[in-house]
Structures are given as structure tokens and as C-alpha cells.
Amino acid sequence: MSTEPMRFDTKIAVLLREDLEPWQRLNVTAFLVSGLGTAVPEVIGEPYEDADGVRYLPMFRQPVLVFEGTKETLTAAHARALSRALPRSLFTSDLFATGNDRDNRAAVRAVGTGDLDLVGMAVHGPKNAVDKVLKGARMHP
Predict the structure, then answer these.
(1) Cβ neighbours for 2, distance < 8 A, ≥ 6 positions apart
(2) In this predicted model, what pLDDT tens digit does every residue of 81-137 receive, in sequence order?
(3) Alpha-carbon distance 7 to 74, whole Å?
(4) Which of 119, 116, 98 is nearest to 20 (CA)?
(5) Tens digit of pLDDT for each residue in 41-94?
(6) Who's near 80: CB < 8 A, 6+ residues apart?
(7) What is the pLDDT of residue 8?
(8) How far, in Å, are 65, 69, 125 from residue 137 at the CA level?
(9) Interatomic CA distance for residues 33 and 122, integer angstroms
(10) What is the pLDDT of residue 66?
(11) What is the DSSP letter of 6?
């Protein structure tokens, strides 16, 4: 087994709108990354097992970097992610008022792309492409 640090040529990033409450940041982040894990299966590592043989679910094989920005930063990042056709997930302000997946999808479907009130998005792709998508965002404190 190698002890060399793993290097990744891809990046998983979450961008949150800076005006979210702490509970909203956590909730939005959890929802957003769940989409990437299902759509991009290669980002998922192997299952875990402790010394007693108890097994645990696999998780991402690489870090998830969390950023924040203004509403305008998020809108611009969304447009750049679309133009680069990168795998992405989104969370709109309307989703705070729904309580299930069916209603979440209906709330997004009811709004045109340019009118989405984005509060968060996640993106995966080559490092340089994700960096360009996140231009203007800053690391979450």
C-alpha cells in the first residue's frame, strides 16, 4: 500500500450563496453533493471497515471544497458550468419551502434557467475547468 499522498486531476466543489443561515448551508451542501455521487460514480471510493470488521458506506474519494459568493457570483458560476457541460447539481431558494423530492423537482421545473434563484450548486470536473467556473468565489470560512 502506497503512503504517497493521492493527487486528483478533478475537483468537487460546492458554491453557496453567502447570505444563507448556518443550518441552510449544511442542508444545501448535503443535498448538492448527493447529486454528484449518483451522477458521477467514479468520485465514490471503496466501502470502509473498522478493525472489528464493521462495514460502512463508501464516501467521496477526494475532498469536497466549499466556497461562497454573492448571488451574482453564483449566477455567473452556474452559467459557466452550463457552458462547459460539467456535471452539476443545484439548490434554489424555492426548495426551502418544499418537503420532498417530487415537490423539489417541480419547483425547479417551474422556473426558467435564467430565472432560477440559486442558493447553491455543486460541480465536478477537471481542476482547471472547475476553477474557471468558480471565478470570483472565495473559500468558505
Answers:
(1) none
(2) 999 999 999 999 999 999 899 999 999 999 999 999 999 999 999 999 999 999 999
(3) 27
(4) 119
(5) 889 999 999 999 999 999 999 999 999 999 999 999 999 999 999 999 999 999
(6) 132, 133, 135
(7) 85
(8) 12, 5, 17
(9) 6
(10) 97
(11) P
